[in-house]
Amino acid sequence: TAYVKYNGYLGLIGYDREADKLIISSKSNLNSQFSFWMEQLLYEKLSYNKIKEMTDFIKDNNCTLVWEVIDPSHDTHIIDYKESNLVLLNIVHNTMDFQQFDYEDTVKLARQLGVEYKEKAIVLNNWEVTKEDYKYKGEYIEGFVIEDSSLFMTKIKCDYYKFWKFMRGVKESVYRKGYYDRMGALNSPLANDFYGWLRSQPKVELQKDII
């Protein structure tokens, strides 16, 4: 089963029983800038009543909510999102052995809270999603999270995302050194055209994000 892979950063929401408050974290740090941005976005998206409803759910079920945080105003990625958003990915039990709620439970909670949830895309019977220039519902996406019947998860990145992430590194090299020294890796007409265009740009233009 393939779920749409969103191009943001990981966010976790749990509950501190001693302090009687939510734990909002990201990047393995409770006090990072990413955690702060996520907290801001959470309180923008959810009303006081919805925050309380979410807190009660986490307390009652001893679980952690796993999110994708899409925040183009602070943290840009290859996929160009127009606005910030929170996407509920999973509900995970707070146990030593990995256990998660069913997808249907995740969808139910997201709908109760009025937030977006990860989209179940397709059950893969072939490798169509790895074709060059693949689009999902007419849009470029980062890729898919693949989950098997044992709940083992891994990721597939789409060609568009992999190509432009690689070219971001090429752009940074041209910005720093004026050239890219692994020309053999530019093995497509588009890569060579883009590289030639980069070399023609003034340095001030190369400071911009590749998007």
List keywords for this structure.
211 residues, alpha+beta, 4-stranded antiparallel β-sheet, 34% helix, globular
The termini sit apart by 30 Å
Low-confidence stretches: none
What proportion strand?
A: 15-25%
| Structural category | alpha+beta
Major sheet details: 5 strands, mixed
Number of strands: 9
What average pLDDT do the residues reach? 90
Shape designation: globular
Quaternary structure annotation: single chain
- For the biggest β-sheet, the strand order reads 3-2-4-5-6
The percentage helix is: 25-40%
Q: What pattern of helices and strands is seen along the backbone?
A: EEEHHEEHEEEEHHH
**Number of distinct helices:** 6
**Gyration radius, to the nearest Å?**
20 Å
Description:
With 211 residues, this protein is α+β, with helices and mostly antiparallel strands. The chain has helices at 33-45, 48-61, 103-113, 159-177, 189-199, 203-206; strands spanning 2-5, 9-16, 21-25, 63-70, 85-93, 116-117, 120-122, 143-147, 153-157. The strands form two sheets. It has a five-stranded mixed β-sheet with strand order 3-2-4-5-6, with helices on one face. Strands 7-1-8-9 form a four-stranded antiparallel β-sheet. Strand 2 and strand 3 form a beta hairpin. Helix 4 packs parallel to helix 5. The longest helix has 19 residues, at 159-177. The mean pLDDT is 90.
